[in-house]
Amino acid sequence: MISEIGHIALILSLTIALVQGTAPMIGAARGDGQLMAIGKTAALLQFFFISIAFLALMNAYVTSDFSLANVAQNSHSAKPMLYKIAGVWGNHEGSLLLWVLILATFGAAVVFFGGNLPPTLCARVLAVQAFIAVGFLSFTLFTSNPFERLFPVPLDGNGLNPLLQDPGLAFHPPFLYLGYVGFSIAFSFAIAALIEGRVDAAWARWVRPWTLVAWSFLTIGIALGSWWAYYELGWGGWWFWDPVENASFMPWLAGTALLHSAIVCEKRDALKAWTILLAIVTFSLSLLGTFLVRSGVLTSVHAFATDPARGVFILAFLVVVVGGSLALFAIRAPQLKSGGLFSPVSREGGLVLNNLLLTSAAATVLLGTLYPLFVDALGIGKISVGPPYFNTVFIPLMTPLVVLAGIAPVLTWKRADLYGVFLRMKFVAILTLLVVAWCLYETWGSTFLGTLGIGLSAWVGIGVLVDMGARVGLFRDRIRVSLSKAMRTPRSIYGMNVAHIGLAFLVAGITASSAWRTEVLRVVQVGETVSVSGYEFVFHGVEKIQGPNYSGERGHFSVNGDTRDAIQLFPENRFYPVQQQPTTEAAIYTSWRGDLYAVLGEPDAQGGWSARLYFNPLVAWIWLGALVMALGGAISLSDRRHRVGAPHRIMSGKANNRVATNV
Questions:
Q1: For the chain, does the N or the C end have fewer beta carbons within 10 angstroms?
Q2: CA separation, residue 471 to residues 297, 423, 467 (Å)
Q3: Can you give 190-240 as a three-state secondary structure string?
Q4: Does residue 54 carry a pLDDT above 70?
Q5: If pLDDT is split at 50, 70 and 90, which confidence band does 119 have?
Q6: What is the pTM of this model?
Q7: Is 565 exposed, middle or buried (0-12, 13-18, 19+ CB in 10 A)?
């Protein structure tokens, strides 16, 4: 009965979304406040009914209701409770329901936090959100119904994919979807602005907080996915340029460009058309990622569906949304007049260069991801585009971007003094060269690119610290004066600098783990010692283990190195009988210097076991950097200017009465 209630709630949500998409749009065109107000009520009702549907599906998983085909295919009575709950979104149908729930959540958030929006803009934003919901609710109900009944009812279910039975994958999809779907708000603001034919500094100030929210969640989601791949798949790496990984990375790159472009639009009333286009492109890339994961065109541990019919539905929706929005942009963009002029050597100029590099990087990733699919679709053959291509084209684009991140804080708006910039960066350059010299000394004879990467990381990090010191007058003013300046500094400035420090951590982690990783692959006997980058791995044997829904073997290594006590590592090989699938569980010890990483392989005829042993220097800095970047976004979001938004215009009493009557 509860499942039927969930199904009915989804149908009602689709009906409400149709009303929400039409009535407010008509009301905004006519200036009818009553019709525009329907959008807010409908958005809240849509959130309410989709929440009921989601909770109904979760109830089916928690109670192991195998009369639902979705539960029978993706759950099992012996599965731990955490993975029963995670199983709700660990499949195609359930993840779509999570998608529309988050979409409705953002729509309701616009109602709650958009009180300072002009009524017509708010109505159109909610209407565009509703049209997106219509597409995904239709897709859910007509091709991917999570409440479809199964008869006869099986005694037990097939269970969730063992690779997904992991805490990292329990939380990775919700964060990823909060980012994916969050960009729909920026898209809706862009389309609403194009319909109204007006983009100004107030619009940019309204759109920036929503973009910050989506960007921060997507950053965490990508980091969680990378972390899961690192410790769960057992290959010692954290990124493989998998097409599904790229599907989430492309909107992140475009969203980062959008964040920086919106700053120029707000501060200088410039780059209006470009900011609108970026908002469209960012969400379009999110939809493209949805298509790649669910169309069956990709084979990946991340992919959900293999049904081509579903792929055709999403492709048609993608064409309508992207094609329609770009057509509207082509018609309206010439009417968006540019604002203030600026010199190439200025903060605006730096942000424009930032946008060019980020969008070029997104384009290269898009080309490398889609080109093999086009070649295969045309019947020319099958090709694989992997890390060599991406590393060759991506790193040269990111290097000047990181250099620019270190310089940007000292640039001024409109026109910067180039000589003054050089003087302010002189101290940063000297300290960076000292770091590079130390790195060369420590790694002499090793890769030059590793030293370059560490130098870039130091350049950004030191540049941020020097800029903050200069802002508050550190070592120049009295401590009381410096503290006063620090208290008056906007939180958005702190957020920007924290995010850039996160970038410095990220670059250092990527560089060190790529340039100086040590790997040893060999067969080990009990009592044998293996040396890996100065650490001594001693193999103590293997024992049988029994988990709640798996069996397996657990290896034991002790590691002697630069710590007083030996480090104990217990890698596992697991076998899940329900799915008849084996998995590898790596054993990892993390320190500030790097990770000791052990993977247990198969036994040989002489009583030995194959093992892969790694030392991955600074690899944890990658995820630390991502979290710090997301923290920077949260700090920026707490800035009062983002919470308050643009002030209301002062209107005459007559105008006030007219608006009050309409609303």
A1: N
A2: 52, 15, 6
A3: HHHHHHHCCCCHHHHHHHHHHHHHHHHHHHHHHHHHHHHHHHHCCCCCCCC
A4: yes
A5: very high
A6: 0.91
A7: exposed
